[in-house]
Design a protein that fits this description.
The protein is of the alpha/beta class and 543 residues long. It contains 17 helices and 19 strands.
Length: 543
């Protein structure tokens, strides 16, 4: 075939294709087809109109912004700025919205667009959060990848009502002698940890978390306004104590925006509520609510809210009350779980009557007060039993510990009164001198090293030995070794104490005599070893 014949065949096929297309076009656009197409369009439901509200940024401050143009925005609604930063509507006024920012305010420029999301702030919840370090929005900060959450839940929730709560009847063991015996905490209780700076508030909270390795309690540590190195030490302690895998660490550091510090406790409580709804027991620690109150005060002042006492806004009590009221022991119909809250608050110069401390004391079910005077005496944990109280936990305390706690408080209170009296140099009789010796020994027996929570059997053995005067003749520097020997004897011989505690029964006279005899033998063995060592040093090995 020549080139001329080939071009002729191509032209013929193209003309046939154009003719077929023209015929199909005329058929589709015939009057009958057009009428059918028009009727199908008329029968189709009209889509609902979509209204998009766009606001404008008129002011930007350190952690806050003022937005106009969003007349239908709701309180606590989440907004998204054009730069990607999110914010929460805090103030509703006719022509302006006061927004607290959840990201750096440096990224926001005047005049940029702001859009509504029609939802409140939510955080991921689920078992995948255990063992993770997250921020106040639930985003991972440990470099282990995204969190496989089962759902997202709003951080704000209504506190359960009276009918959803039950009496606190189970103890929460902290592993600290001074607390478990004299200031007990129950599962579902709200117990305040209060004291000046550097008195050991965080140490008590972390030791309580570490002691839950002996139970099935899930722990959440919420750090508000804490330095990064302090949070790193907490994570290292939990990892060393094999509790990080059953804990959630939430950090809203002092280097971040105050908006994240404000929502952090509510986010942590939302995560705790997920586990309690599954029937589990949760321990949540807020460290600390003093920084939380200061962050809220900063945001309120920047938004030009009228200040009240100590420049705090008038709703600061409600801010903390609606948070802590979500903790408690819940009924079986409400899930059967519990949330035990241990909020931490800082005082200045032992001023318990300051605004925020008095608010939290009235909200919670008791307080553990840490005294700087005991710190100066090297008494750790520095729990002041005279100012510490537990209004609920005593009902959940084991009868075994309750029998020892009563004598412990009386002995220490009498000792402190006599100690103040003896400072005047008055001549003391033998009875008073004996009480002073016994009280000093009992107070020293309450000392406990950090990161060393004790089981209940070891606590009872040490306290009974101190109350019976086994430590009276020992110098203070040897008491730690003596208590270590009694703890070793308790682990070996006092399994019956755990049985009494599990059965909620008191110790019989035979049990007490057995504990005292075993403790004497342990201390006698210590003295024998010391005497033999002294003779060996003085006479030599070949004597």
């Amino acid at each position: 075939m020549t080139d001329t014949d080939h071009r002729a065949s191509e032209n013929q096929s193209q003309s046939q294709l154009l003719q077929a297309r023209s015929q199909a076009y005329s058929e589709l656009h015939s009057p009958e087809q057009f009428e059918s197409w028009r009727e199908s369009l008329l029968a189709t439901p009209t889509p609902a109109p979509v209204m998009t509200e766009v606001g404008r940024v008129t002011e930007v401050g350190d952690g806050v912004a003022v937005v106009t143009g969003l007349a239908r925005a709701l309180a606590d609604e989440l907004l998204i700025f054009e730069c990607g930063v999110r914010g929460i509507v805090l103030d509703l006024e006719p022509d302006r919205l006061g927004v607290i920012l959840l990201g750096p305010s440096e990224l926001i420029t005047l005049g940029e667009d702001v859009r509504r999301t029609r939802k409140v702030v939510s955080v991921p919840v689920g078992p995948a959060l255990l063992g993770r370090v997250v921020d106040a929005m639930g985003r991972p900060r440990d470099g282990l990848g995204p969190v496989a959450a089962v759902a997202e839940t709003p951080i704000e929730a209504e506190a359960p009502g009276i009918l959803s709560r039950s009496a606190i009847f189970r103890p929460l063991a902290t592993g600290l002698k001074a607390i478990d015996a004299a200031v007990p905490v129950g599962l579902g209780q709200r117990e305040l940890i209060i004291g000046d700076r550097q008195t050991g508030k965080t140490s008590i909270a972390i030791d309580t978390m570490l002691n839950q390795a002996r139970s099935d309690v899930t722990c959440i540590y919420c750090a508000v306004g804490q330095r990064g190195d302090a949070v790193s030490r907490v994570i290292a302690a939990l990892k060393k104590g094999n509790m990080l895998a059953r804990s959630i660490v939430m950090s809203a550091g002092d280097e971040e925006t105050p908006g994240l510090a404000y929502i952090a406790p509510y986010s942590a409580m939302a995560m705790a509520e997920y586990f309690s709804d599954q029937g589990r027991d949760v321990l949540i620690i807020f460290d600390d609510l003093t920084h939380h109150a200061r962050s809220y005060r900063e945001l309120s002042l920047l938004l030009r809210r009228p200040p009240g006492r100590e420049a705090f806004p008038g709703d600061i009590f409600y801010v903390h009350a609606r948070l802590l009221e979500r903790a408690g022991q819940f009924t079986r119909e409400a899930g059967g779980g519990s949330i035990t809250a241990l909020p931490v608050v800082e005082t200045q110069a032992e001023n318990l009557s300051a605004y925020i401390p008095t608010n939290l004391i009235s909200i919670t079910d008791g307080q553990i007060y840490l005294s700087p005077r005991l710190v100066r005496r090297n008494q750790f944990p520095a729990v002041d039993l005279g100012l510490s109280v537990s209004r609920v936990g005593g009902k959940a305390q084991s009868r075994t510990l309750r029998e020892v706690a009563g004598n412990l408080r009386v002995t220490l209170s009498q000792f402190e009164e006599l100690e103040d009296f003896a400072r005047f140099g008055t001549r003391l009789d033998d009875t008073t001198r004996a009480r002073l010796t016994r009280g000093a020994a009992v107070r020293t027996a309450l000392r406990q090293a950090e990161r060393d929570p004790m089981p209940a059997a070891e606590q009872l053995a040490v306290l009974i030995a101190a109350m019976e005067g086994l430590f009276d003749d020992l110098p203070e520097q040897k008491l730690s070794d003596a208590m270590a020997r009694i703890r070793a004897a308790a682990r070996k011989h006092f399994q019956f104490i755990d049985e009494r505690i599990n059965e909620n029964k008191g110790l019989t006279e035979e049990d007490r005599e057995r504990i005292i005899t075993t403790a004497r033998n342990a201390l006698a063995g210590d003295r024998t070893d010391q005497t033999a060592h002294a003779n060996e040093v003085s006479h030599g090995p070949d004597a």
